[in-house]
Write a structure and sequence with these properties.
12 strands; 10 helices; globular; seven-stranded parallel sheet; 329 residues; three-stranded mixed sheet; Rossmann fold
Length: 329
């Protein structure tokens, strides 16, 4: 068990895939956890409105708050009494961001500003903002390092880049112990966004059907198991107690990139299912051929490193979906 990172944590977006796993880790370490998210919907669609806390069996162990990030009064109440805030909540469905750029900007930018302001006013000891490799946009050279300019071009990407920049400037201007963590593609059991590559491939292999892949299989990405993503958050939280983390951004990615075809083939191999994927005609709109991260800065400051290799992680993921048919589409 890891040392207790805080007495009481607020996890915004704690009903989501990564947020629910982070919540589980905080509980296991002895922290009390308050989870903030929008009220769940009665008719969830493609993972929307479904709480990831339920399949993990921890929904009864947390305090839940249904609130909108854009409600400053509600956010102040949610932050009150917490000594750590993990801000993961966002408009995370990229397709929705293309359809409604105004909402993506409003939620991801104005909502994040509310969170940061409330953390300042409540003198929260450590705040971590969930940024993304998408903030880099179509940077010319991978792997991406933190000193590259953020060249986000599309609504979702741009909103994450603005939140990232705000987090770092707020930390420097206000002296708030706040850092941004830029994660790569996180995967693992419990991801209820079935439009993503790994859940689709894992469930297809479990069901012995053809995975439907949006691209032609050529894009290369690095992939980070959810357990390693959680440990990166906890590493940054611990680093905020010392020097070198506040006001900075840190990448957390896998050890090396893999093509989409590699990931699909490996998923089938470890899952024991021979499938013929249905690939798309090329790159989906807004996608970049090669996107992956250099995590040297995080490794050097905290000693963090991925512990779950892709083969092992994909095997665990297929097994998880086989064991949890109730969450599958």
């Amino acid at each position: 068990m890891s040392p207790k990172p805080c007495d009481r944590a607020l996890v915004t977006g704690g009903h989501g895939f990564l947020g629910s796993h982070l919540t589980a880790a905080l509980l296991a370490a002895g922290s009390s956890v308050r989870v903030l998210g929008r009220p769940p919907t009665e008719r969830p669609r493609a993972g929307r409105g479904r709480s990831g806390l339920v399949p993990l069996g921890i929904d009864g162990e947390v305090e839940t708050v249904a609130a909108d990030l854009r409600d400053a009064e509600a956010m102040a109440a949610a932050v009150s009494g917490c000594d750590a805030v993990f801000h993961l909540a966002a408009q995370t469905f990229v397709g929705d961001a293309y359809a409604s750029a105004e909402e993506a900007v409003d939620v991801n930018v104005r909502g994040s500003w509310n969170v940061f302001s409330c953390c300042r006013d409540a003198e929260v000891a450590r705040t971590i903002f969930a940024s993304s490799l998408k903030a880099y946009g179509a940077a010319p050279d991978a792997p991406y390092r933190e000193d590259l300019p953020l060249r986000a071009e599309h609504p979702y990407d741009a909103s994450k880049a603005v939140g990232d920049l705000m987090a770092r400037e707020v930390a420097r201007e206000w002296g708030v112990p706040l850092a941004a963590l830029r994660l790569t593609n996180v995967y693992g059991g419990g991801d209820l966004n079935f439009t993503r590559l790994v859940p689709e491939a894992a469930i297809a292999v479990a069901d012995r059907r053809a995975p439907k892949i949006r691209s032609d299989g050529a894009p290369r990405r690095d992939f980070l198991h959810v357990d390693d993503a959680v440990s990166a958050y906890l590493a940054i939280a611990a680093a905020l107690d010392g020097e070198g983390a506040a006001g900075e951004a840190f990448n957390a990615g896998g050890d090396r990139p893999h093509s989409v075809r590699e990931v699909v083939d490996l998923t089938a191999e470890v899952g024991g299912g021979e499938v013929e994927p249905e690939y798309g005609p090329g790159l989906p709109p807004g996608e970049v051929l090669d996107q992956y991260l250099d995590s040297t800065r995080l490794r050097e400051l905290t000693g963090w490193a991925p512990a779950v290799d892709l083969r092992t992680g994909l095997g665990r993921t297929v097994a998880w979906y086989r064991e949890h048919e109730e969450v599958r589409p």
